[in-house]
């Protein structure tokens, strides 16, 4: 009954989400998966968009409890890519057919607003028709405005948990859910294609937490949502915690496609780390984006948010070729397009 209600109206109440997450069967999951695929194909066909990921710094001033590059982790070999190195990654990516570049890093004070603006302008000046996504954390409204005016198109800021108590169990006290949410609304106001998201199976997460996430995302109406299973990192306080569930992550990908049918929804690297065919399964559950790594192989192992991350030794062309074959094997097509969200077509 709940599955039919979700498919028919596109949302549930908090209590209904909790019940669905507690009691779903494999038959329920399959019904939701089929509906999610219908919606994905309605808005995106068989296309899978690519994002060229450039992890340009692993310095971070924050100490999120789950993150391998948290500022106080003394075992991390820190690095920063220079402007020339970032542009070289873009050149390699452009030649491989990437039309979106994702600049992702820790919250690194070295990369001031001015430096980020300079990098964005340099990339846009070289590749006029590309899209730039920034994923560099919580900034001021003024900073976001500068990035937008410089030419940044998208911003990814996972909210991690929309449940206040749960958020506090994952982050130090100076980080607040209220500020994270404010940042997301500011990004939307400034005209960014805005992305939020969360981990599935993070420590202390309950089905009530996940229901809060789904309700918040429906309210936020983002352009993209990134979710993946929680995978522990050996240098964090959560080192001994269990990994998130592949099954539940795939269910939630389908649910997200149903409640937000036009969003861009990645099949994340964490999915591929948890299961050899995780990214393919993510696409078959309703995802339509993959994010091959363009970072130099010399730094990839140093950007370790969680243990056993895949593709750390592959050159960019290997990553792209491997993913293309995987995507074609499930009847989809990896395309060289900017891949703007269907939300923008409204």
UniProtKB/TrEMBL annotation:
<feature type="binding site">
    <location>
        <position position="64"/>
    </location>
    <ligand>
        <name>[4Fe-4S] cluster</name>
    </ligand>
</feature>
<keyword id="KW-0949">S-adenosyl-L-methionine</keyword>
<dbReference type="GO" id="GO:0042364">
    <property type="term" value="P:water-soluble vitamin biosynthetic process"/>
</dbReference>
<dbReference type="Pfam" id="PF04055">
    <property type="entry name" value="Radical_SAM"/>
</dbReference>
<feature type="domain" description="Radical SAM core">
    <location>
        <begin position="46"/>
        <end position="262"/>
    </location>
</feature>
<keyword id="KW-0411">Iron-sulfur</keyword>
<dbReference type="InterPro" id="IPR058240">
    <property type="entry name" value="rSAM_sf"/>
</dbReference>
<feature type="binding site">
    <location>
        <position position="135"/>
    </location>
    <ligand>
        <name>(3R)-3-methyl-D-ornithine</name>
    </ligand>
</feature>
<keyword id="KW-0004">4Fe-4S</keyword>
<feature type="binding site">
    <location>
        <position position="60"/>
    </location>
    <ligand>
        <name>[4Fe-4S] cluster</name>
    </ligand>
</feature>
<keyword id="KW-0479">Metal-binding</keyword>
<keyword id="KW-0408">Iron</keyword>
<feature type="binding site">
    <location>
        <position position="180"/>
    </location>
    <ligand>
        <name>S-adenosyl-L-methionine</name>
    </ligand>
</feature>
<dbReference type="InterPro" id="IPR006638">
    <property type="entry name" value="Elp3/MiaA/NifB-like_rSAM"/>
</dbReference>
<dbReference type="GO" id="GO:0051539">
    <property type="term" value="F:4 iron, 4 sulfur cluster binding"/>
</dbReference>
<dbReference type="InterPro" id="IPR013785">
    <property type="entry name" value="Aldolase_TIM"/>
</dbReference>
<dbReference type="GO" id="GO:0016740">
    <property type="term" value="F:transferase activity"/>
</dbReference>
<dbReference type="GO" id="GO:0044272">
    <property type="term" value="P:sulfur compound biosynthetic process"/>
</dbReference>
<dbReference type="GO" id="GO:0046872">
    <property type="term" value="F:metal ion binding"/>
</dbReference>
<protein>
    <submittedName>
        <fullName>Iron-only hydrogenase maturation protein HydE</fullName>
    </submittedName>
</protein>
<feature type="binding site">
    <location>
        <position position="67"/>
    </location>
    <ligand>
        <name>[4Fe-4S] cluster</name>
    </ligand>
</feature>
<dbReference type="InterPro" id="IPR007197">
    <property type="entry name" value="rSAM"/>
</dbReference>
<dbReference type="InterPro" id="IPR024021">
    <property type="entry name" value="FeFe-hyd_HydE_rSAM"/>
</dbReference>
<dbReference type="InterPro" id="IPR034422">
    <property type="entry name" value="HydE/PylB-like"/>
</dbReference>
<feature type="binding site">
    <location>
        <position position="160"/>
    </location>
    <ligand>
        <name>S-adenosyl-L-methionine</name>
    </ligand>
</feature>
<dbReference type="InterPro" id="IPR010722">
    <property type="entry name" value="BATS_dom"/>
</dbReference>
């Amino acid at each position: 009954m709940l599955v039919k209600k979700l498919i028919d109206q596109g949302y549930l109440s908090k209590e209904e989400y909790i019940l669905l997450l507690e009691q779903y069967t494999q038959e329920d999951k399959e019904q939701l998966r089929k509906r999610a695929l219908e919606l994905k194909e309605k808005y995106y066909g068989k296309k899978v968009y690519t994002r060229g990921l450039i992890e340009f710094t692993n310095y971070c001033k924050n100490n999120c409890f789950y993150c391998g590059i948290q500022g106080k982790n003394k075992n991390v070999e820190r690095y920063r890519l220079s402007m020339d190195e970032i542009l070289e990654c873009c050149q390699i990516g452009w030649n491989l057919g990437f039309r979106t570049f994702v600049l992702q890093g820790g919250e690194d004070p070295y990369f001031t607003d001015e430096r980020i603006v300079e990098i964005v302008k340099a990339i846009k000046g070289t590749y006029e028709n590309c899209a730039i996504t920034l994923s560099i954390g919580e900034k001021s409204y003024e900073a976001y405005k500068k990035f937008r005016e410089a030419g940044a198109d998208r911003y990814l800021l996972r909210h991690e948990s929309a449940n206040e108590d749960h958020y506090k169990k994952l982050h130090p006290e100076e980080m607040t859910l209220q500020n994270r949410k404010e940042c997301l609304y500011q990004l939307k106001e400034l005209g960014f294609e805005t992305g939020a998201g969360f981990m599935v199976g993070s420590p202390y997460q309950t089905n009530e937490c996940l229901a809060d996430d789904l309700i918040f995302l429906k309210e936020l109406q983002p352009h993209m949502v990134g979710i993946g299973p929680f995978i522990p990192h050996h240098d964090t306080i959560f080192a001994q915690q269990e990994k998130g569930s592949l099954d539940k992550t795939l269910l939630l990908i389908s649910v997200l496609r149903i409640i937000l049918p036009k969003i861009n929804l990645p099949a994340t690297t964490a999915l591929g780390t948890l299961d050899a065919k995780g990214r393919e399964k993510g696409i078959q559950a309703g995802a339509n984006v993959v994010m091959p790594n363009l970072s130099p192989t010399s730094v990839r192992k140093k950007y370790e948010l969680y243990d056993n991350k895949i593709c750390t030794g592959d050159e960019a062309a290997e990553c792209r070729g491997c993913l293309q074959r995987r995507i074609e094997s499930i009847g989809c097509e990896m395309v060289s397009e900017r891949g703007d969200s269907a939300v923008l077509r409204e």
